[in-house]
Each structure stands twice: as structure tokens, then as C-alpha cells.
Design goal:
By secondary structure, the protein is mostly helical. It is built from 12 helices and 4 strands; from the N terminus they run ααααααβαααββαααβ. It has a two-stranded antiparallel ribbon with strand order 1-4. A two-stranded antiparallel ribbon has the order 2-3.
């Protein structure tokens, strides 16, 4: 379990760097053009896909593709849609519509969704489609009433951040669409993180140690979806000639080529941390403690918000701290366990 914690902390660093880098790319300018949320996601994932493909070939992991059952490819296509296609685009859209701290904090409801979808209902929906049964484990899950309280507090925090404290104006503000996009991104990440537990393999094949295979193949499906949408909407264009600005002290902004930042996203976030996240969850699942990892990722927004403030001069909205306190309280209710309550067998096989 120590390795799972170590990998999660490394993931936190990568995820903390990702949002300000994404926002900088969305603000990048060139001769009469800029990148859309869809284009930023596409080019960064292209870089990550090429890097991960090289790694798969070098480690002779391509042969493990044959271990997957036919239904496994359907699960990976769904993972591609939620984790690699809609998630990054929705989050980038939120970054365009809202200040970085607000969009990021709303998106970091995803540990709640990850824990929620580790329950019995998600498995009951997915198993008839995949036909996949895994070994039972022992996991601590929040009681329904406590989980409802946690979600209620978190959603109230989201609404306060989205409306700058004016809840009655939620339906009419520009940032409402950004808040909904960030909330959807959190939902999509919860689905993606849990679908990896239900990828069936062929009879007699070992289902363990396939996290990198799941990540690569789902990335391939997601990339194909993004490419199709870009083609149909006539948005295919290069990032050449675009530059992004960072503030690195009192000397003023530093302008960096957009391709440099795309490489950072592709290699550090999409190739490295996404794959490592599935592996960390797999390790945690072997010990029946995968539910302990999602709350640790709440260190990432602290890193990202700090970097956004230092490097992009992103402001904190007046209602940011109120919403943040409610979301923290909601997640605390989600992971808190009364004294004397031990682990109990989960009815969920994972």
C-alpha cells in the first residue's frame, strides 16, 4: 500500500501543474488565432499517446492486448469517452468560463464521485454489460445518509462559487455553464476511474497488471473521438506560432511557445499521471483500500491554485473561501469514520 500512496503523491504534483498549464494554453495568442478547449485537449493527448505507445512497445506490452475479452473493448471505449474525450474538453471549457481557482475547486468534487461509484449500484449497472466478476474485498464505504450529506455540502459549495454568493442568480450567470462543465468533468472522472475495474479478460488470462494497457487503449479511443469531432467541426489547426505567458516574478511575463506547454501536458499529465492513477487504484484495490486514495488528490488543487495565482495572476473570487470550506466539509463527511467502527465486507466486488 505504500507504493500506492507514493504514486498518488506523485500524481498530485502532476495534476497540480496541469490546470495552470491548460489555462495558459487557452490564453495563448498568435497571428489572428488561439486554441479552443477541444484543440488544447487534442494536441496534448496526441503527445501523450505517442509517448505511451513508445513505452508500450519498448516494454513489449502490446502482446497483452490479446488478453482482453471482446466486451473489454467496449468498456475501454466508454473509458475513452469519459476519461479522454469529454473530461479534458469539459474542464478546459470551465477554465475559459470561470477563474481558475473556482473551476478547479468545483472539478475536485471528483474524489467524491470516485468513492460513490465504488459502491454496489455502479457495479450492478456495469456487470450485466461486461459479464465481469472479480474477487470480493473488504472496503469501508460511507453510509447513505452521510454520503448524501457530503454531496449536499459539496454541491452547495459549487453553487456559491459559481454565483459569487448570489444563489438566486445561478440560472442566468455566464459562469453557470462553466460550473456545470466542471461538475460534469468531476462526474466523468469518477466513471473513468471505476470502469477500469470491470474490463474482462479472456478465460485463463491474468487480469492483473493491465493498468497501462487500459490507459493506452482508452486513450486511443478518446483520441479518435476528439479527432472525429475536430474534423467534423473544421477545427483542425496547429499550435505553431502561438505563445503563452507566465509571470515568474516582478520582471514581467515570460512568453513560451505553446508546443512546450503541450509537451508538458502530454508527457507529465496525460501519459504519466493518468496511467499511474489507474495503477495506484489497482494497487489499492488489492489491499481493499482503494477508497483511501481519492481524498489524497485534494492536495492537487492547493498546488494548482497556488501556481495559478503566482504564474497567471488568477484572482480568488469573494465567495471562493466559503465554497471551499463547504466542499472540504463535504469530503470530510465522506471519509470520516466514527471511533470503534471497523472495516466490513463490502457487497461490491472490486
Amino acid at each position: 500500500m505504500r507504493r500506492a500512496y507514493l504514486y498518488t503523491l506523485l500524481i498530485v504534483v502532476c495534476w497540480g501543474i496541469g490546470p495552470p498549464t491548460n489555462k495558459a494554453l487557452l490564453l495563448a495568442r498568435g497571428p489572428g488565432a488561439q486554441l479552443s478547449p477541444l484543440q488544447v485537449a487534442f494536441w496534448a493527448i496526441v503527445v501523450g499517446w505517442v509517448a505511451l505507445l513508445a513505452l508500450m512497445v519498448a516494454r513489449d506490452r502490446v502482446r497483452r492486448f490479446g488478453d482482453l475479452a471482446p466486451r473489454g473493448w467496449l468498456v475501454l471505449a466508454a473509458m475513452g469517452f469519459f476519461g479522454w474525450s469529454s473530461y479534458p474538453v469539459a474542464l478546459n471549457f470551465a477554465f475559459v468560463r470561470m477563474p481558475l481557482p473556482d473551476a478547479l475547486l468545483i472539478n475536485y468534487l471528483h474524489p467524491v464521485f470516485v468513492v460513490v461509484f465504488q459502491g454496489t449500484v455502479f457495479g450492478a449497472i456495469v456487470r450485466p454489460i461486461t459479464g465481469w466478476e472479480q474477487r470480493p474485498d473488504y472496503q469501508r464505504r460511507p453510509a447513505p445518509a452521510r454520503l448524501a450529506l457530503a454531496l449536499g455540502l459539496c454541491l452547495l459549495g459549487v453553487a456559491i462559487i459559481a454565483t459569487n454568493g448570489q444563489l438566486t442568480s445561478l440560472a442566468g450567470i455566464r459562469s453557470a455553464w462553466g460550473a456545470l462543465a466542471a461538475l460534469y468533468a468531476a462526474f466523468a472522472w469518477g466513471v473513468y476511474s471505476n470502469l477500469g475495474r470491470f474490463v474482462p479478460v479472456r478465460p485463463g488470462r491474468d487480469a492483473r497488471g493491465l493498468s497501462d494497457v487500459h490507459a493506452f487503449l482508452s486513450m486511443t479511443f478518446g483520441l479518435a473521438m476528439l479527432a472525429a469531432i475536430l474534423t467534423l467541426t473544421h477545427q483542425v489547426r496547429s499550435a505553431s506560432g502561438l505563445s503563452a505567458s507566465f509571470y515568474l516574478g516582478p520582471s514581467g511575463p515570460v512568453h513560451l511557445p505553446a508546443w512546450w506547454l503541450i509537451a508538458v501536458l502530454g508527457l507529465g499529465v496525460y501519459c504519466g499521471s493518468y496511467t499511474l492513477w489507474l495503477y495506484a487504484l489497482e494497487l489499492g484495490g488489492r489491499f481493499g483500500e482503494a477508497h483511501k486514495l481519492p481524498p489524497l488528490t485534494y492536495l492537487a488543487p492547493a498546488v494548482a491554485v497556488t501556481l495559478g495565482w503566482l504564474m497567471l495572476h488568477e484572482p480568488f473570487g469573494p465567495a471562493f473561501w466559503t465554497g471551499a470550506a463547504l466542499i472540504v466539509a463535504g469530503n470530510a463527511a465522506n471519509v470520516w469514520r466514527p471511533a470503534g467502527v471497523g472495516l466490513s465486507p463490502s457487497r461490491e466486488r472490486s
